[in-house]
Design brief:
With 98 residues, the protein is mainly α. It is 70% helix and 0% strand. The protein has three helices and no strands. Helix 2 packs antiparallel against helix 3. The protein is globular, with a radius of gyration of 15 Å.
């Protein structure tokens, strides 16, 4: 029952960490979210399937970003931690869907 509230809290924490790194690089973070979620009630399975889709997209985005931060130790370490975290999330949700 705490899965979704905890996931939302963690999403906000990740966004704040990413914004901090962007500011440290001398840039201003921009928010560009393109989400397509279904309206109305969802079954637990459907909600978990959507959560899995978002987690997989986050994992893929971090993996795509990794090569571009090579050589920036702190940023590279942050991205590697995010890849590990998102990989764990994908595995957890996949197990819940079984």
């Amino acid at each position: 029952s705490s899965f979704f509230p905890e996931a939302m809290k963690e999403t906000i924490e990740h966004a704040e960490e990413v914004a901090t790194h962007i500011r440290a690089l001398g840039h201003i973070p921009k928010l560009n979210i393109k989400l397509a979620v279904h309206g109305g009630p969802l079954s637990l399975k459907d909600a978990l399937s959507e959560a899995l889709m978002f987690e997989q997209q986050a994992l893929d985005a971090y993996k795509d970003l990794l090569p571009s931060v090579k050589g920036d130790g702190p940023l590279e370490e942050f991205i590697r931690r995010q890849i590990a975290t998102e990989g764990e999330h994908v595995a957890e949700i996949t197990n819940l869907l079984r």
